[in-house]
Design goal:
Layout: E1 2-4, H1 5-11, H2 18-28, E2 31-37, E3 45-55, E4 63-68, E5 79-83, E6 93-97, E7 102-103, E8 108-109, E9 113-115, E10 118-120, E11 123-124, H3 142-145, E12 165-170, H4 181-192, E13 208-209, H5 214-223, E14 225-232, H6 241-249, H7 257-269, E15 274-277, H8 278-285, E16 294-298, E17 304-306, E18 312-314, E19 320-324, E20 327-331, E21 335-336, E22 348-355, H9 358-368, H10 373-380, H11 387-402, E23 405-413, E24 422-425, H12 426-433, E25 436-438, E26 441-443, H13 447-456, E27 460-463, E28 467-471, H14 483-494, H15 514-528, E29 532-533, E30 539-540, E31 564-565, H16 570-582, E32 587-600, E33 603-616, H17 634-646, E34 652-656, E35 663-673, E36 676-684, H18 686-691, E37 698-704, H19 705-712, H20 715-718, E38 731-740, H21 745-755, E39 760-769, E40 778-787, H22 796-814, E41 817-818
Parallel strand pairs: 13-23, 29-32
Antiparallel strand pairs: 1-12, 2-12, 3-4, 3-6, 4-5, 6-11, 7-8, 9-10, 14-22, 14-23, 15-22, 16-19, 17-18, 19-20, 20-21, 24-28, 25-26, 27-28, 30-31, 32-33, 33-37, 34-35, 35-36, 36-37, 38-40, 38-41, 39-40
Helix pairs in contact: 1-4, 4-13, 6-7, 7-11, 9-10, 13-14, 15-17, 21-22
């Protein structure tokens, strides 16, 4: 938002330095990104008089001019300037840039030079070179531009309106009032205590019902209201200079008085308006313009629309269009149509003032790839109470500047319910904000200061015993909806730096909760096991790699390819693995801990998950494989995951499973934590591996994070227990068994630990073999068992008895046979 300081000072008294005002606005939430001093565009440019003009002796298109830039009585010699403009002539007043002047609009510093052998000591300027809109092809002729030409030698900046400063404000999404001069003026008044001088309210024009169909009525009521004001006797001509300057300083291009007035009212009030030519509407319908022919509906697929800016669009149902005779004449809230635009021959208008929903305008603008000043305001949300006031103000200006006559107004709006006043409790404000520092003392903010601050924003206050009943003005009804919003406004405008600081009493150090610490240790353990942590977007395409139910889509995605919430972490991990291998990386071992989103009925389920991919070679060390890289098999990959889980003392068991569509049917297992399924581990299905161009030895795992953290933080695991160092030696035995290949190592280890009590200290799997040396349907599993008695050294007989007991239990339970 570009704010003219001159215009602002007409609305509110703020005569202090502009830098101080900019700082206060920035602290209050309206960041001032830049201050544009327009006077710098014409610094060193003065009024000059062309005493003589002669053709250049060596160039047909150049002129040699003698310019007087001082009073005639001063006796100063004339400047000789070589000029290439075709409209220069003797006896005219022109803006002259003296030697040393810098024209910032074209980034040019004037120097004395020689053109085709003729010395030139200055430059006659065009409006474009001074940073102003210029529709001519030559230099600026001050006699034509100004009613009264200043004396020769006078700086030209003030006469051309370059005596202003423009503030570039960054307006946040929750402050649509900041996109209007009236809103900024109220903000400055509240900040500085300045007196407001707002334009008087325009006369209210009575309205009769707008005849619309049911579909159009529903579309109008979704936004708020739609009004048309019929005007006749309109003179379409260039706007007066003051109006053109205001638009130019705001960054808008003057067009004609009708369009310029609608833009001026938009800048002043924040409400976009649009004018239709009645004659062109009548030509479209083949009969006199009739409000009943107007409608509001979604566009049809492929429907054509020619916009005011000369662009043509094939519309989609995402766009909301204003129609006449069922033909699009405007893209609602975005831009008008070229067919019904106001032109120099227009004498009868329909002035549209409407309120469209922010969502509908946002979709329309995105569907055609346009973002206009009007759509930017509608997208932030505007109060419907301002719409008709803005229309009345525009009609008043059209009557004054274009000779318009009001023929009538039509209006359709949804039933309006005034918002109830908000209760602002004195104690709630003081408890939330604390005391202010006044003369070094801490005191509660006085009631008078609270009332002054809110009144300056346009609020009406009624005092009560506990505080006030506050009626919020329409311009702030979008963001002041709760008591805490009013308290925030008081704090913001008084200044946060004026409130006393309060520290917690007592001051206690913070720290991680047990669950947070366990999650951090889990990440570290996975990294220590050789995996890298990744972090992917939670927004993904509509279709994933797996045949899951449809993903939940966003209502207003920024990008189509990232418009849905992810339901799995593995999709991005697998794609990352493919990208790494295609980039000649030998392997990709990675995991991610993140949130996934799944639709269950009409509710959304959100949960944290751990997922990982072990794919290809590990290159961090090669000594264990004789210097040659190799991929892990199923059991080695599963052991890496177990190594990480063991760091948190998690009891994780495997249960064979073959029904997961992403996994190899014979090389997958459900992972049980404390007896409950927490996730799964397995090798990627060969067909999926081929489709993704990944190696066959690609292993995946996925676990819900909640049961892992819950199991890890149970008191018996989380609280470390002291165990004294052993003072007696241990005795180790290896036990190799042949068991059915359906028996898992976890089942065998559970039986071994149970049967080996109390002398068995540790049991671990060291080898598993299936092949020609064992019977089909069987597998050899070897375990290393460690025996110890903490009080004494075990004898060979005692160790053998415990070992035999374990073997007998395994033979009985699983039919195990000792492998010789």
């Amino acid at each position: 938002m570009r704010v003219s300081l001159q215009w602002l000072r007409e609305l509110v008294s703020c005569d202090g330095p502009v830098q101080e005002l900019a700082e206060r606005l920035s602290i209050a939430g309206f960041e001032v990104e830049a201050i544009d001093d327009l006077a710098s565009q014409a610094e060193g440019v003065v009024v000059g008089y062309v005493e003589d003009r002669q053709p250049h002796p060596d160039a047909d298109r150049l002129s040699v001019c003698q310019l007087r830039v001082g009073p005639a009585s001063s006796g100063e010699p004339c400047l000789q300037v070589v000029c290439g403009a075709a409209n220069v002539r003797a006896g005219m007043h022109v803006p002259v840039a003296l030697v040393g002047a810098h024209l910032s609009a074209v980034d040019l510093t004037i120097q004395a030079s020689e053109l085709r052998g003729v010395t030139s000591t200055g430059m006659i300027c065009s409006l474009k070179e001074l940073g102003l809109a210029d529709s001519s092809d030559g230099i600026a002729v001050l006699d034509e531009l100004l009613e009264a030409v200043p004396p020769v030698g006078t700086p030209v900046a003030a006469s051309l309106g370059l005596d202003d400063q423009v503030l570039e404000l960054a307006i946040t999404a929750n402050r649509p009032d900041g996109l209007s001069m009236l809103g900024i003026a109220r903000e400055v008044a509240a900040l500085t205590g300045g007196r407001l001088s707002l334009p008087p309210a325009a006369p209210v024009i009575p309205a009769e019902p707008l005849p619309v169909g049911e579909a159009s009525a529903a579309a109008i009521e979704a936004g708020g209201l739609f009004s048309l004001t019929a005007l006749t006797g309109v003179r379409v001509e260039p706007s007066p200079p003051w109006l053109q300057r205001r638009l130019e300083r705001a960054g808008l291009r003057p067009i004609n008085n009708v369009v310029d007035i609608t833009n001026l009212v938009m800048l002043e009030t924040g409400q976009p308006l649009h004018a239709f030519d009645q004659g062109r509407l009548a030509a479209l319908g083949g009969k006199p313009a009739d409000p009943a022919a107007l409608g509001l509906r979604p566009a049809r697929a492929g429907e054509s629309f020619d916009a005011l800016d000369g662009s043509s669009h094939a519309l989609s149902p995402e766009a909301l269009v204003v129609t006449y005779g069922d033909r699009p004449i405007a893209l609602a809230g975005v831009i008008g149509g070229a067919e019904t635009a106001v032109h120099p021959g227009s004498d009868a208008l329909w002035l549209e003032a409407a309120m469209f929903s922010a969502e509908a305008v946002r979709r329309s603008a995105r569907s055609v790839g346009l973002r206009t000043d009007a759509s930017a305001r509608f997208e932030k949300g505007l109060p419907s109470e301002v719409t008709l006031t803005a229309a009345d103000r525009a009609v008043q200006l059209l009557q004054e500047l274009a000779g318009a006559r009001v023929e009538g107004r039509w209006l359709h709006r949804r039933p309006h319910q005034p918002a109830p006043p908000l209760q602002l409790r004195r104690d709630a404000l003081h408890n939330l904000l604390g005391p202010v520092l006044m003369d070094g003392l801490q005191e509660d903010l006085p009631d008078g200061r609270i009332e002054q601050t809110l009144t300056a924003l346009g609020c009406s206050l009624v005092a009560e015993s506990e505080g006030w009943l506050v009626t919020v003005p329409p311009s702030r009804s979008m963001d002041l909806t709760r008591e805490v919003d009013l308290i925030e406004e008081v704090a913001r405008l008084v200044g946060y730096d004026h409130f006393a600081s309060h520290l917690p009493d007592p001051i206690e150090p913070g720290g991680l909760e047990a669950g947070q610490q366990a999650e951090r240790w889990l990440r570290q353990a996975l990294c220590h096991a050789g995996l890298q942590e990744t972090c992917a977007f939670s927004l993904v395409p509509a279709q994933g790699l797996m045949d899951h139910p449809p993903r939940l889509g966003l209502t207003n995605p920024l990008l189509t390819d990232y418009g849905h919430l992810r339901d799995s972490l593995l999709d991005e991990l697998l794609l990352a693995a493919r990208r790494n291998l295609q980039a000649s990386m030998p392997g990709f071992w990675a995991f991610e801990i993140g949130r996934v989103f799944q639709v269950e009925g009409e509710s959304l389920k959100e949960q944290a998950e751990l997922a990982g991919v072990i794919c290809g070679e590990r290159r961090s060390e090669l000594w264990s494989s004789g210097g040659k890289g190799r991929s892990l098999d199923y059991f080695e990959a599963r052991g890496m995951l177990q190594q990480a889980l063991a760091a948190l003392k998690l009891p994780c068991e495997d249960r064979p499973s073959g029904d997961h569509p992403l996994l190899h049917p014979g090389r997958s297992a459900e992972l049980l934590v404390e007896g409950r399924v927490a996730g799964w581990f397995g090798q990627l299905h060969p067909q999926r591996a081929e489709d993704l161009d990944l190696p066959e030895a690609t292993h995946l795992f996925q676990l819900a994070l909640s049961p892992l953290i819950s199991a890890a933080t149970r008191r018996n695991r989380w609280q470390p227990a002291f165990t004294p160092f052993a003072t007696v030696p241990a005795s180790e035995r290896d036990l190799a068994l042949v068991v059915p290949d359906t028996v898992t190592a976890a089942q065998l280890l559970s039986a071994i630990r149970k049967a080996g009590k109390p002398l068995l200290e540790r049991a671990e799997l060291i080898d598993r073999y299936q092949g020609s040396q064992v019977e089909a349907g069987s597998a050899s599993q070897a375990f290393r068992l460690r025996y110890r008695d903490a009080r004494r050294t075990l004898t060979e007989t005692e160790v053998e008895q415990a070992h035999t007991k374990i073997l007998g239990a395994l033979q009985k339970q699983f039919g195990a046979a000792r492998r010789s």
